[in-house]
């Protein structure tokens, strides 16, 4: 068999987008939230001597403390600044040094404290602790008992059951049988096999219901109150103004970084005869111009997308029940003539400040289900709200099954399957009907 190789030349024109490093960074900057953007600019300023960072500190409508007395607790912005708490570990150490004498037992207590996690649970087995310290089992148990007497109640527990028992033990207002029910029948109580518990202790189901309700007031993670609140502050990117039924979206400049060009430094460095310095300074000038342009484009894109969202969801801002219309990323992209992925990057981690709260732009998007009778679409958020209302108003002694919820929603011209109702119910954190049943209703 004979093989032949033929060579030929062809001219072909192909258009494609080259993902340069600057283009990749521009896309990344759009995706950054305010804190990430500031960190990026700060890093750039360390590399580029021509970048000077300035932060807007004008708080606009916020009154100064010098000319206003706060009488409304809700509007007292000073009270909304989080306190800096000590950690759980530091809090326990302070109590140990304050309450317990310097003995060998206290040494064991300090050893065990190092194995308590952020939720307040002991993460080391006592048998392992005895091997590491050389203490006896009784000494180690005594050390744990001392820890469990500290605040917060429940600290030092080895599991959820022990954590709840430690809290009940200190609470004089706890139901009479709460401690023994948790101690002996915790699994049956959690799995709502209350008939067995009622029969064993010769009490009514209503009394078991009271114990169960009381347990809901206890904390499963006593150490969580010491978690840091430093990362909980949100800096909104946009602010919504409502005046005479008109909605206006503006960029929120407060606290956002801006950059300025170090003109004097640039001129001084450009005047040098060193060619390398001149090339370096021109490169850094180009980098500054690119960064400035990218930041402006980012702000403009967020404002355009935010304004389009607000215009499409006007009922949310005017009506008290905050209804959302079905809206997708593609609809916003087509309206603004931008790519759908651009909208996705824009709405993630970007927030809109209103008079009644701060909302992530992403939260305004909701798919819809077509209504066969009206031909209109109902957003999934609206369906979930109606589902929540049905559950809130049900007879707690006879809660609605998922199929009954399907039938009730159908009466409201919402035709969805039982599987969808189950999914929405779980999304809302609503237990199944068997776990919603109450015996004191």
UniProtKB/TrEMBL annotation:
Record flagged with keyword Signal: no
GO molecular function ontology, one term from the record: nucleotidyltransferase activity
Gene Ontology BP annotations: DNA-templated transcription initiation
Alphabetically ordered keywords of this record: DNA-binding, DNA-directed RNA polymerase, Nucleotidyltransferase, Sigma factor, Transcription, Transcription regulation, Transferase
Species this protein is from: Enterococcus caccae ATCC BAA-1240
Residue intervals of the RNA polymerase sigma factor 54 core-binding domain: 80-265
Protein name as annotated: RNA polymerase sigma-54 factor
Coiled-coil spans in chain: none
Sequence ranges assigned to domain RNA polymerase sigma factor 54 DNA-binding in this UniProt record: 278-438
